[in-house]
Amino acid sequence: MNVILLGAPGAGKGTQATRLAEKYSIPHISTGDIFRENIKKQTPIGVVAKSYIDKGQLVPDEVTVEIVKQRLSQDDCKNGYLLDGFPRNLFQAEELDKFSTVEKVVNIDVDLTKLLKRITGRRVCPCGESYHVDFLNGKTTCAKCGAELYQRADDNEETVASRLSVYKNQTAPLIDYYEKAGKLLVIDGDKTIDEVFSEIVSKLG
Ligand code: ADP
Ligand code: AMP
After folding, report:
1. CA distance 23 to 17
2. Distance 111 CA to ligand 1 centre (A)
3. What is the per-residue DSSP string for 136-163?
4. Distance from the CA of 40 to the center of ligand 2, in angstroms?
5. β-strand 28-30 against 122-124: which pairing, if any?
6. N or C terminus: which one in the chain shows less Cβ crowding within 10 Å?
7. What percent of the chain is predicted at pLDDT more than 90?
8. Could you tell me the sign of the dihedral formed by the alpha carbons of 124, 130, 133, 136, in that order?
C-alpha cells in the first residue's frame, strides 16, 4: 500500500497519517519531520533546509528527492508507506514515479480560508502527534506520551502566507496530475478528525 497524503499546509495530513500508519502498520514518512530532525541535529541538510523553511519556501528538489529516495529504499517500506508532504511540485512527482509506484493519492480538501487558524493554533509533540489550542483546554502536554507540546517555528502568520502561496502555485497542480493517473481519492477535510479518518479508510478499502 503506497499512499500519498496530499493537501494544503494545515489540511490535516500529519494528524491522519499517524492514525493511518497505526491502522495499516506502514511507516509515516513526513519530509517536513525529516527536515526538522536534521535542523535539530544541525546536520548539513538541516542548515540548508532551515534557510528555506523559515521563509516558507520549498527546500530544493535535489535535496528533497534524494532524501525520499533513500528513505523509501529502507526495509520497513516493503509493504507500503504513507508519504506526507511529498511530492510538493510536479518535478518531485515525476521523480517519485521513477523510483516507486504510487497506488493511491488521498487529497484532503479543506477550505483554504480555515488554514491560517489551523496552522497558527497548531501545537506539536516530539512524538509526532499534533493538537490545536482550541481543543487542548489549556493543557500543554501530549495526551499520548506526556511530553511538553511546542509551536513550530514556521507556524507564524508571515511564513504561512508564503506556504499557502507555494501550495497554490506548485502543489495544487498535483491534484490534476494524480487524477489523470486514476489514483486520486478526494476527502472532505472540513469534517472532524474522526470523520475524515473514517472517510479515508472507507475509500482506501
Ligand atoms: P498538516 O500535516 O496537513 O500540515 P496537521 O495534521 O498538522 O496538518 O493539522 C493542522 C492543525 O489542524 C492541527 O492543529 C490539527 O490539530 C488541526 N486539525 C487537523 N485535522 C483537523 C480537522 N479535521 N478539524 C479540525 N482541526 C483539525
Ligand atoms: P510540512 O511539515 O510538510 O508543513 O513542511 C514544512 C516545510 O518543510 C515546508 O514549508 C518546506 O519548506 C519544507 N518541505 C517539506 N516537504 C518538502 C518537499 N517535499 N519539498 C520541499 N520542501 C519541503
Report:
1. 10
2. 12
3. HTT--B-TTT-PBPB--TT-SHHHHHHH
4. 15
5. unpaired
6. C
7. 98
8. negative
Inter-residue contact 115 to 13 (CB < 8 Å): no
pLDDT in tens, 48-59: 999 999 999 999
CB atoms within 10 A of CB 149: 19
Whether the per-residue pLDDT at 170 is higher than 90: the answer is yes
CATH of domain 2-111+157-204: 3.40.50.300
Residue 28 C-alpha to ligand 2 middle, in angstroms?
A: 15
Residues labelled as active-site residues: 13, 88, 122, 152, 163
Residue 35, all three cell numbers: 527536515
Residues 111, 98: Cα–Cα separation, whole Å: 32
The answer, yes or no, to whether any atom of ligand 1 lies below 6 A from the CB of 163, is no
Q: Is the pLDDT of residue 205 over 90?
A: no
